[in-house]
Specification:
The complex is a heterodimer of chains A (956) and B (198).
Chain A lengths: L14 E10 L2 E7 L3 H7 L6 E2 L6 E2 L12 E4 L2 E5 L9 E4 L26 H5 L7 H9 L16 E6 L3 E4 L3 H12 L4 E4 L14 H16 L3 E3 L2 E7 L3 E6 L7 E7 L2 E4 L4 E2 L12 E3 H11 L6 E6 L2 H12 L3 E7 L6 E7 L2 E7 L4 E3 L2 E5 L2 E2 L3 H5 L5 E3 L4 E3 L7 E3 L9 H29 L37 E3 L4 E2 H9 L5 H8 L12 H12 L3 H4 L13 H5 L7 E2 L3 H6 L3 E5 L2 E6 L3 H10 L2 E4 L4 E6 L3 H8 L12 E7 L5 E11 L2 E6 L4 H15 L6 E4 L4 E7 L3 H8 L15 E6 L2 E7 L8 E7 L3 H11 L6 E2 L2 H11 L33 H9 L3 H6 L1 E8 L11 E3 L6 E11 L4 E9 L8 E5 L5 E6 L11 H4 L1
Parallel strand pairs in A: 1-7, 8-14, 9-10, 9-15, 10-11, 15-27, 17-23, 18-19, 18-23, 30-32, 33-43
Antiparallel strand pairs in A: 1-2, 3-4, 5-6, 5-7, 12-13, 13-14, 16-24, 20-21, 21-22, 25-26, 28-29, 31-32, 33-39, 34-37, 34-38, 35-36, 36-37, 39-42, 40-41, 41-42, 44-47, 44-49, 45-46, 45-48, 46-47, 48-49
Chain B lengths: L26 H4 L8 E5 L4 E7 L4 H6 L6 E4 L2 E7 L2 E6 L1 H10 L5 E6 L4 E7 L3 H8 L14 E6 L2 E8 L2 E7 L3 H12 L4 E3 L2
Parallel strand pairs in B: 1-11
Antiparallel strand pairs in B: 1-7, 2-5, 2-6, 3-4, 4-5, 7-10, 8-9, 9-10
Chain lengths: 956, 198
């Protein structure tokens, strides 16, 4: 391998016996199992891996963790991979993003030459005029947009979702987080520990051998206690009542999994994130943070440079210097910022740092500059809980203030201490979390009817007696005397921020949005406090006075696939759907239902049904079993017509309106026995009508005795239609009296059909033909269907699909609620006025309909829509549904076509439409505006029915 | 309170050889059947499911001896308090018929046989709870939803009625969703090891 790979380190996480091959911009390279993409690239002496967003400046790794702002790379089809975090895998094809012709020589770096014009707001201000050129601007600017490339044909892979109800969620698996999880589990809590990185341990992972022994011991304890440990997973949000979202990237078999956890207590142990320093050249390849250097050397055995200058504002700088020396790097100077030392610039060429200029003006030759200038507490989850952290100038960082009592913070984010002190604080936090979770659990259990009975009295709410952690002094080190990058992801410099503040964007929230500082992929983890510090300096105020921006979810970006999770799309299937599919039915998606549209030739299906006999599966038809003495009252209330005198065996059609008189559903209801009725609804309205009936019964008429049971799925519905249907049914139900005088149109019987008892047989139909609709217990549907085909073979029986049914119902002029009516169609517009019984005491929609029917306002009467049948004068023109009806040669809209088909029975085009009443008279000629712009004429018909308006066929 | 051992749901209605279940559970449906025993899933659609509605204060309701949201077993029949005035009798046809004959008529308002109307899946095994937790947002810990609970909840976005009996769950939904539900449960069970029951 390369010269940058060190010999084995004691705590390294790579397995040198497992070589992993990958490519970088097409070049074959190799790393080890356990490497990140970034450590493997650096081990192969690949230094420049990306170009900055705006100026296309060469960039390399800085923090070597999830938040590294320069590390977004393309891996195969996946853009924006965080290469300092993502583990290397065999065969990965890694490349730089948005560079041309290459990452080493990128033409767009010319942007850097005009950098002083590309200040914050440049795009907003420049490309707004002239407005008509925006489409052109957009096209050109899009080529400059960062973000890799995606291939829309790439298989999207699987994402997953799960729910969880842990007592305690611990966010962060460093020493304090692990200690909290262990203590909470020891106290009996169900604990979920979530760690952002691939392994537990936090900063101990790149620490001493003793540190790592502690990690091993605590990890084992977590396993023993049954704590659910999720590594490479992020707590992305905290919402009301501790609803916690977790993005788990480590679940086998899926790319990402969203966990929706309802935790009783959330422990936030998110640690500290190292802050970059702002100075001239701070984004040059070779400028790294002390944590990044320590990870690289100790975890991956990679030497980050050969001659280093270290700016040490804290002991992490000293430790980095020691690690570098042990790795054979020559540390030419440790500049101690605690004693006033400083640096002003990292100078060099396009390949990286060559010289470091110190505050005294002297310079040192070096290819590596390491900064250790302080920490940011990632308090996001606390902010999401309502906390507003406060700034402590002496410790140079923000600390949590007053989070809710079910959100507890521990570890480095609340203070400093030895490893023992951090662990002790974690332990006391875990104990407190467990005891508070127990009280919350008690309360939930006591308040939930189905839960087990609670034992004993409610425990007292445990008070917080934890000893704090001290705030150690740390020098405030934000910006040197020179300017440099503040937001590396977004290419926003301290100079940009100062200029924006001078322009008036001097509130931190405005500054953020105007400059986009903190809005890049690292989401302010590295940049927020530096942004605030630069603004404070510009405003000549303190950081505490300026305050921070609000940290909202997600804590770390989550993929759209992860948010979608497992895509649940419930599908409803008739018990006959398998048969339909096996017999060539073209599927029709109708809401959640899958239905047979046709079996190859809908027109032929129509002809066969009109001439012989056809069978159709109408199982989605909504069905409600109604029982009880007050069913007639309910029907009288829900329908516009009268129901009190419906005899047993009788069937009636009903129109159902909402309170505003608008038609909401229709269907037939039959009386099966003295106290039992079966109501049918439209297929799409089944759920709504059930809820509607229950709503009236439970909240408005609670004294009525009616039991409503949805039985849509219980019965498969098969309509047997055509002149030979009586003969076919007679063969299958020999005991059923089918004499037309005894079993008339609009009657219902209970019968045994094809040996299946308890079938319900209706003489109704949507097709206009003599027809019988058999509702058969669904488990026997296939048996009946096959019997119908077998027994009716000599009668010419054949199946027909939804399309043939739609044609036949249009020939017959039956309107469909929701297709020929809409959300404004009131009952009188449907031509069903005789069914609106205003002499009934009450029914839903009556007051509104009374007004509708009684009004004499000529304008209302003229313009009220009417559902009418229409025929085009040219019988071959079938206007598309939703074609507009206009007045004469004008474009004044007077209605629209709601249904249209070519009728195989009549050999001509037929339509239903809605039109203003003043044009609805039979014989009127109106103009149809076709979608291709042509105008054709159509005549309003006297009846809705184009075919057999007298109904002699269906009554036969 | 119901225990798994109280339930013998293996005998079926099977009223006729032409009866077809709401769902077809095959290794293909499930994606795989690896024989490990984390979750066992069985189609119980052929069990008789009778709903009885009665006034909560009546003799009929007292006979049921279950409150709303709980279930008990009576021999091979499960009696479920599914809504405040709605009880379900689930079991083999003859068992349900026996129990039905015992229910006092006083206060009994109506009954509907939903044997054909509901898909019914039994999910059991040591990891059944984990599997259900994955696709259903309720808290399935024993304290919050103890064995003997009967709840209505969304499972994989389908409105379901669920009875918990020890580590065993009876999940039912409208028959038309049956195939989808069983496929969704099989999908959810993959990570736990799925066995297809009888």
């Amino acid at each position: 391998m390369s010269t940058s790979r060190l010999s084995a380190r004691p705590g390294e996480v790579i397995d040198r016996s497992q070589t992993v091959r990958f490519t970088w911009n097409g070049r074959s390279l190799s790393g080890y199992q356990g490497d990140t993409i970034g450590s493997a690239l650096l081990a192969n002496d690949v230094r420049i891996i990306s170009r900055s967003m705006k100026y296309h400046r060469p960039r390399s790794y800085m923090s070597m963790d999830y938040w590294d702002p320069n590390a977004l790379l393309q891996v195969g089809d996946e853009p924006n991979v965080r290469s300092a975090h993502r583990q290397l895998a065999e065969g990965m094809e890694v490349s730089a993003q948005n560079v041309w012709p290459s990452v080493d020589r990128d033409i767009k770096a010319a942007n850097g030459l005009v950098g002083r014009f590309l200040t914050a707001g440049f795009y907003y201000k420049t490309f707004i005029h002239p407005q008509r050129l925006w489409p052109l601007y957009e096209k050109v600017l899009a080529t400059f947009a960062p973000g890799g490339s995606i291939d829309l044909d790439t298989p999207h892979g699987n994402y997953d979702k799960r729910y969880a109800h842990p007592d305690v969620v611990v966010a962060g698996g460093g020493p304090s987080g692990m200690a909290a999880a262990i203590a909470a589990a020891e106290a009996g809590a169900k604990v979920m520990l979530v760690e952002h990185e691939y392994g537990l341990g936090g900063h101990l992972r790149w620490g001493s051998e003793a540190d790592q022994a502690v990690v091993r011991e605590m990890s084992q304890r977590l396993v023993d206690l049954g704590v659910e440990v999720l590594v490479d997973s992020t707590v992305t949000g905290r919402y009301d009542d501790n609803w916690i979202s977790i993005a788990q990237r480590s679940h086998p078999g899926v790319i990402e999994r969203l966990i929706k956890a309802r935790a009783k207590v959330l422990v936030v142990a998110a640690g500290l994130i190292e802050r970059p320093y702002v100075f001239s050249g701070n984004d040059r390849p070779g400028v790294m943070l002390s944590g990044g250097v320590r990870r690289l050397v100790n975890m991956y055995g990679v030497r980050p440079g050969s001659r280093a200058v270290v700016l040490a504002g804290n002991e992490s700088g000293d430790q980095a210097a020691a690690d570098l020396e042990s790795a054979g790097v020559s540390v030419v100077e440790v500049v101690d910022a605690r004693n006033g030392g400083g640096i002003t610039a990292a100078e060099g060429s396009s390949t990286g740092v060559e010289r470091v200029v110190l505050a005294d003006g002297s310079s040192r030759e070096a290819d590596l500059l390491v900064t250790a200038v302080g920490w940011t507490a990632p308090t996001s989850l606390l902010n999401m809980s309502g906390d507003r952290p406060v700034y402590d100038a002496s410790a140079a960082r923000f600390f949590p203030a007053d989070p809710p009592e079910t959100v507890l913070a521990t570890g480095g984010m609340i203070g400093d201490g030895s490893l023992e002190e951090l662990i002790a604080h974690g332990q006391s936090t875990g104990q407190l979390a467990a005891s508070r979770a127990a009280v919350t659990a008690y309360r939930l259990q006591a308040a939930t009817a189905r839960a087990s009975a609670v034992q004993g009295p409610e425990p007292a709410w445990p008070s917080d007696n934890r000893a704090g952690l001290e705030h150690r002094h740390h020098p405030e080190l934000y910006r040197s005397s020179t300017h440099g990058m503040v937001d590396f992801s977004e290419d926003v410099s301290s100079k940009d921020l100062v200029a924006a503040a001078a322009e008036g964007f001097d509130s931190v929230e405005l500054l953020k949005r105007f400059t986009t500082a903190t809005m890049g992929p690292s989401q302010g983890k590295l940049e927020t406090v530096n942004t605030v510090a630069v603004l404070a300096e510009a405003r000549d105020e303190t950081i505490a006075e300026v305050g921070t921006t609000v940290w909202r979810p997600p804590f770390a970006p989550i993929s759209l696939g992860g948010l979608a999770g497992r895509i649940f799309e419930p599908v409803r299937r008739s018990p006959l759907q398998d048969w339909h599919e096996a017999h060539g039915a073209v599927p029709l998606v109708a809401g959640a239902w899958i239905r047979p549209d046709h079996y190859g030739n809908a027109a032929q299906e129509v002809r066969n049904t009109r001439q012989n006999v056809g069978i159709i599966d109408v199982s989605p038809l909504g069905k409600l079993d109604l029982q009880g003495p007050d069913v007639p009252q309910l029907l009288n209330l829900l329908y516009t017509n009268k129901w009190s005198k419906l005899p047993v065996g009788g069937v009636r059609y009903g129109l159902m309106c909402a309170d505003d008189g608008v038609v909401m559903d229709d269907g037939v209801t039959g009386r099966l026995s003295e106290n039992r009725y079966l109501m049918t609804t439209t297929s799409s309205g089944a759920g709504t009508v059930w809820e509607w009936a229950e709503n009236w019964l439970q909240t408005e008429r609670p004294s009525w005795q009616v039991d409503v049971t949805p039985v849509t799925g219980a019965y498969a519905s098969i309509n047997v239609a055509g002149p030979k249907s009586r003969e076919l049914i007679g063969r299958l139900a020999p005991e059923l009296d089918l004499d037309p005088d005894n079993f008339k149109y609009m009657q219902v019987r209970t019968a045994t059909v094809a040996g299946v008892a308890n079938c319900i047989v209706w003489r109704i139909g949507f097709t206009g033909e003599l027809s019988y609709e058999v509702h058969v217990p669904a488990g026997y549907a296939l048996h009946l269907w096959l019997q119908l085909l077998e027994q009716g073979d000599d009668l010419g029986v054949g199946p027909f699909g939804i399309e043939a049914q739609r044609i036949m119902r249009l020939e017959k002029g039956h309107f469909i609620v929701g297709q020929d009516t809409d959300g404004l169609t009131k009952a009188p517009s449907t031509g069903m006025t005789p069914l609106i019984k205003m002499d009934k005491e009450d029914f839903v929609g009556k007051p509104e309909l009374a007004w509708e029917l009684e009004t004499s306002d000529p304008d209302v009467l003229k313009r009220r829509p009417a559902v009418v049948a229409l025929q085009t004068l040219d019988p071959q023109v079938v206007p598309e549904e939703a074609s507009q009806l206009v007045r004469g040669t004008t474009t004044e809209i007077i209605g629209r076509i709601t249904s249209s088909r070519m009728s195989p029975t009549l050999g001509r085009s037929i339509c239903l439409g809605q039109i203003e009443q003043q044009y609805a008279e039979a014989g009127n000629i109106v103009t149809v505006l076709l979608t291709d712009g042509r105008r054709v004429e159509a005549e309003v018909q006297a009846h809705h029915a184009h075919y057999d308006p007298e109904g002699s066929r269906l009554r036969g | 309170m119901v225990k798994t051992t109280d339930l013998d749901l293996t005998s079926s209605t099977a009223a006729s050889p032409s009866f077809r279940s709401s769902a077809v559970v095959t290794p293909t449906t499930a994606g795989f059947a690896d024989g490990s025993d984390g979750v066992t899933m069985s189609d119980r659609a052929d069990l008789t499911k009778l709903t009885m509605r009665c006034d909560p204060a009546s003799a009929a309701a007292s006979w049921m001896a279950v409150s709303f949201g709980s279930a008990r077993s009576d021999g091979d029949v499960l009696i479920v308090g599914m809504r405040p005035d709605e009880f379900w009798l689930i079991g083999p046809a003859d068992g349900v018929e026996r129990a039905r004959a015992d229910v006092p008529t006083s206060g009994l308002r109506s009954e509907v046989d939903l044997t054909h109307g509901r898909a019914l899946v039994q999910v059991s095994g040591p990891r059944a709870t984990k599997m259900l937790e994955k696709v259903c947002g309720l808290d399935w810990s024993e304290n919050m939803t103890p064995p003997g609970s009967a709840v209505s909840a969304s499972v994989a976005k389908v409105s379901c009625d669920i009875v918990r009996a020890g580590d065993s769950y009876l999940i039912s939904c409208d028959r038309s969703f049956g195939q989808y539900l069983i496929e969704s449960l099989a999908d959810a069970a993959q990570e736990f090891g799925l066995t297809l029951g009888d």
